[in-house]
Write a structure and sequence with these properties.
Elements (H helix, E strand, L loop, with lengths): L1 E4 L3 H15 L10 H5 L13 E9 L5 E10 L11 E9 L3 H16 L5 E4 L12 E4 L15 H8 L2 E12 L6 H11 L4 E5 L5 H15 L11 H11 L9 E5 L2 E10 L2 H4 L8 H13 L4 E9 L8 H16 L4 E8 L3 H9 L3 E12 L14
Parallel strand pairs: 4-5, 11-12
Antiparallel strand pairs: 1-2, 2-3, 3-4, 5-13, 6-13, 7-12, 7-13, 8-9, 9-10, 10-11
């Protein structure tokens, strides 16, 4: 076997080809946009390079056939509560069903990480944001959501046989759009609806700057401190909303207010993969026109829960039920969607799991983030539960 560092455009193309060759015959696989993978490894487009570095390899057999790939990275901003050593990451793992080949890839990554003072590696994870390319698919081998890893079933055995242990599971929940919501949601909604200080509003493309600022306020109060995160700036939030704008459906993204102060949001987007699966990894002019045509036809029947939360001061008061019913009253009556699926919820987040299950949603798939401790005698601990 020959391991090759990806250091030019030709090898970068082969890095993409490995994934295609090993997954193209797996039912449910959707080829990701080439650009989405390439930009992870572009220092000009990926801000993670400001705080770390990465390397990637392709693996060939003795006849020169592509049989595997892997990326490894360090990022000083990457940490979980309770970590006792510096943790690096591996991701974009693909491999034939051969333990020796997988071990070769993981051993190489381990050595590279150890040279940088790392004591453990998590994977498969992304060199950057956690909403994309995070976790190994271990249950629910059907069409992935946009930006979600997909892999053959045997990858689980390759990772666990090497010595990776489950750090946390990432559970997605889904339901039919017209499923009847439980009575308790209507009861809690009615209680808050009596107070004129509470109101809701769906997002409006013409007022993105305002909604981005409101989202920024909610995010910093509800999520930023989790796992050592940092506050988001209004400029960052506005950039995020501008990026979402071409896909945005105004009537499936909702905010809740108390005395006109934003206190929570429920952000959903149409599942972009319902369009991506027709485009063979490309997004040039032809594919952009195709996207517009498919969007006009209403071909997308699934929308995805990106983020849901209420600021701490209003949690436990029924604000979540109020927000869900306000949105459902519009979505269930006038939207073109038949299916709803929530982006993954970590098994360390019981509050959000309760929200999903309370909604009546059922698990649709599980992705798993593994951890491998370089000191094989060290005590292994799973991701701490969020309070």
């Amino acid at each position: 076997m020959e391991l090759i560092i990806v250091d030019n455009e030709q090898k970068a193309k082969q890095f993409l080809d490995v994934h295609i060759q090993l997954n193209k015959d797996v039912p449910g696989w959707i080829r990701p946009f080439d650009k989405d993978i390439n930009q992870v490894f572009n220092p000009e487009l990926n801000k993670a390079y400001r705080h770390g570095e990465c390397i990637r390899w392709i693996l060939k057999d003795d006849k020169g056939k592509l049989i595997g790939r892997l990326a490894a990275f360090v990022n000083k901003k990457y940490k979980s509560k309770g970590d006792t050593c510096k943790v690096g990451g591996v991701g974009f793992f693909d491999c034939i069903n051969d333990q020796a080949a997988a071990n070769f890839l993981f051993d190489t990554a381990k050595q590279w990480l150890m040279e940088r003072g790392v004591g453990a590696m998590d994977g498969p994870i992304n060199f950057g944001e956690r909403n994309n390319w995070w976790g190994l698919l271990t249950e629910g081998f059907h069409e992935p959501l946009y930006g979600m890893n997909f892999n053959p079933v045997y990858y689980k055995d390759l990772m666990e046989s090497y010595g990776f242990q489950v750090f946390f599971n990432q559970i997605c929940y889904g339901m039919k759009v017209n499923d009847q919501l439980k009575d308790k949601f209507f009861t809690r909604h009615a209680a808050l609806a009596k107070d004129p200080n509470f109101r809701s509003e769906h997002i409006k493309k013409g007022e993105l700057k305002r909604f981005a600022a409101e989202f920024c306020s909610i995010y910093n109060r509800a999520w930023a401190k989790h796992a050592g995160g940092k506050d988001m700036t209004e400029a960052q939030a506005y950039l995020l909303f501008k990026q979402m704008k071409p896909l945005l459906d105004e009537k499936i993204a909702w905010f809740i207010y108390y005395k006109d102060e934003p206190i929570g949001c429920w952000l959903n987007l149409p599942d972009l993969n319902q369009y991506v699966k027709h485009m063979n990894g490309k997004f040039g002019l032809l594919q952009k026109l195709q996207f517009l045509f498919l969007k006009m036809k209403g071909d997308c029947k699934k929308f995805v829960g990106i983020l849901f939360g209420i600021v701490p001061e209003f949690q436990g008061m029924g604000a979540d039920a109020y927000l869900i019913i306000e949105g459902a009253n519009v979505i269930q009556k006038s939207s073109p969607y038949t299916d709803y699926e929530m982006q993954w919820i970590g098994d360390f987040n019981p509050k959000m799991i309760n929200v999903a299950e309370g909604l009546g949603a059922k698990p649709t798939r599980t992705l798993t983030t593994y951890r491998y401790l370089f000191d094989r005698n060290a005590e292994f601990n799973r991701h701490p539960i969020l309070e």
